[in-house]
Automatic annotation (TrEMBL):
<comment type="pathway">
    <text>Amino-acid biosynthesis; L-proline biosynthesis; L-glutamate 5-semialdehyde from L-glutamate: step 1/2.</text>
</comment>
<dbReference type="InterPro" id="IPR019797">
    <property type="entry name" value="Glutamate_5-kinase_CS"/>
</dbReference>
<dbReference type="InterPro" id="IPR036393">
    <property type="entry name" value="AceGlu_kinase-like_sf"/>
</dbReference>
<keyword id="KW-0418">Kinase</keyword>
<feature type="binding site">
    <location>
        <begin position="176"/>
        <end position="177"/>
    </location>
    <ligand>
        <name>ATP</name>
    </ligand>
</feature>
<dbReference type="InterPro" id="IPR001057">
    <property type="entry name" value="Glu/AcGlu_kinase"/>
</dbReference>
<comment type="similarity">
    <text>Belongs to the glutamate 5-kinase family.</text>
</comment>
<feature type="binding site">
    <location>
        <position position="156"/>
    </location>
    <ligand>
        <name>substrate</name>
    </ligand>
</feature>
<feature type="domain" description="PUA">
    <location>
        <begin position="284"/>
        <end position="369"/>
    </location>
</feature>
<feature type="binding site">
    <location>
        <begin position="218"/>
        <end position="224"/>
    </location>
    <ligand>
        <name>ATP</name>
    </ligand>
</feature>
<keyword id="KW-0067">ATP-binding</keyword>
<dbReference type="InterPro" id="IPR041739">
    <property type="entry name" value="G5K_ProB"/>
</dbReference>
<dbReference type="InterPro" id="IPR001048">
    <property type="entry name" value="Asp/Glu/Uridylate_kinase"/>
</dbReference>
<keyword id="KW-0808">Transferase</keyword>
<dbReference type="InterPro" id="IPR002478">
    <property type="entry name" value="PUA"/>
</dbReference>
<dbReference type="InterPro" id="IPR015947">
    <property type="entry name" value="PUA-like_sf"/>
</dbReference>
<feature type="binding site">
    <location>
        <position position="19"/>
    </location>
    <ligand>
        <name>ATP</name>
    </ligand>
</feature>
Amino acid sequence: MVATFDIQNLPPWRRAVLKIGSSLLTGVDGELSDRHARGLAAFVAASRASGRDVVLVSSGAVAAGRTRVPQDARRAGGLVLRQALAALGQTRMVGLWQSLLDVPVAQVLLSHDDLRNRRRYLNARNTLLELLRLRCVPVVNENDTVAVEELKLGDNDNLAAIVAALVDADLLLIASDVDGLYSAHPRLDPAARPIGRVAAVTPEVLAMAGGAGSALGTGGMRTKLEAATKAAKAGIATALFNGTDAAAVASLADGQLRGTLVEAPASRLAARKYWLRHAPGSGGCLRVDAGAARAVLDGASLLPGGIVGVDGEFARGDLVEVLAVGEAGARVVARGLCQYAAGEVRRLAGRHTREIEAILGFSYGDTVIRRDDLVAFEEANA
């Protein structure tokens, strides 16, 4: 008999990414099914009712599309067929979630280029954050319709880890049809024991998941641990649980996990602030007045009205330094990711946020640097 997982407390969280595997959304006939999705949707609703945000990364589009074409048409086509099936199934998969949730559901398709290109990365981030502000539930998937093999993000487990970092999540939840990580394959080794907590994903831990060709390899437990490793680097813990277990799903709403928790070495905020503080910058600088410097040091976003000058050239999304200008000279008070390019900031300097669109003909938002994309140097108060 396979040993079961003990209940443990989830870490505190305000925003989570929930990844749902395709096996949880399809029935034995391959058609979309809400059998397991209902419980997951109830968890999303309960989380939102308590003031938390949940972003879904949902598989199932290709499976949903497969049942819409004749059997003989599925035998050939390779990647092109997969792209067509994804296009056929996306609306059905999103429609399933909309039928289970009483709030607007928004589809967001991401590609490799969206996350590699800094400007498009920021666009995706801003869209997702705005959807959450509007109290919608984003449903994210890879844009399989246009992805080519060499530029695919890969499996949705790793996509979920990327999205978790993208939206500053505190927790990554991965639902599949297995209970969690075992010390060995539980169906093949009677001595396999459940691993309730993983401090770090080491080669020894990866070996427990099996090789790429095993039943728990590609698309299985190994990719989930790889995703947890990515999330941990962003300061995000990962919870692995069985989405077919109604009791395990229901316990999530009470802050309890029956599965495996992969810890993060530091908090999400600490990890992000550390990166902003130490990552290579663009060489660009924004000079600000004393009022803007105080606001930034107090945790506010940087608005265009407090900017008095721009040094150097940089693109949207580049890391720049914020310099407070005073009688004693200039001193660095913060670093952050700039929402606008250097030339655009020069045109906005000293102006009110309501003038942005009139000046530029477009707007990426009211802030030049969002407070979540900024780290202030407290020692600048000295």
